[in-house]
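FAQ: What does the model actually see?

It sees only this:
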Amino acid sequence: MLLQRLGMQLPDWARPRHPHVRYELGLLQRVPRRTRYAQAAGLSLVVVLLFVAGYVIGTGLLQNPLGQNLTESAINLVYWPTLALQVLAQVGALALTVNAVSEQKRRQTWDNLRATESGAGLSLRARWATVYYRLRFILGIILVVRIGMIAGILYDLTAFQGRYIDLLINNITPEISPVVGALLLAFLMTAGLLLPFTSIGLIAAFGLLISVSIQQRVYSVMVQMIGVILRLFIVGALVYGATIFIRGELTTLGNLESWLLMATFGAVGDWGLSYLHLGFYSEVWATIPYGVFFGITLLAFAMVQSALTEWILAFAVRRAERIG
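And it is asked to produce this:
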């Protein structure tokens, strides 16, 4: 019932019953069932292996305990597998949209769509919407992990007879009350749930803009490869930079540079996943002045991403109708 209510909030062109969405999703049904089962089994195996690898990494190659408490054990177990799934989702979102126009041309349907009122626009928007349907398994795992981490935050806040947050905000800059601290944590938890979806939407919108601007398949594939490599580099650099900063190995940064590094890490690097571990996030509060405001910063970033996605989609539609 809840999913139906959420579905009613979608625009008509994003609903599964819309003809364009049905057409895009129907292309998956043309793949032989045996092939689809093999793909699902392969993806499930990859996910299992990722979490096994996460356990091995989290225990220091099985040499150490996973963590000192429940939430620390949880983040050590799920962080690297979830980060890998997030990168895989980003690659998938780009791959599913960057060839949208060239595929329509290959099927000889693009000219017919452009000749129909709003046909090209609805086709592009439907292609964007189906990215979420096609990546629902990966996004579902990412969402479940984040809900679990949020439950861990709420569990940790009950420590010390419910006064744990008082200890966390002690001696941080600026000084805030426990009520404000709890409110800022609520912003963070909301951002942690939204960022995967707004980020995937933005990447998919960029993919559609590329597909409209570069319609030759060979060139779009090259751009796709460059985009994937660039994305991997950005995520890797941000994760590495944040890791050595928290370890105290990056001492050349001032307060502003540190704030920008960790804010960008949360917004673009791991989509706020690290900050959903209260032990890590409290270190950020204590280390970086005004780091306590990362929650509201990430939430604002998610809102900006959403608005930018809509603008890029509209621009891609106008460009498709103008240049074909």
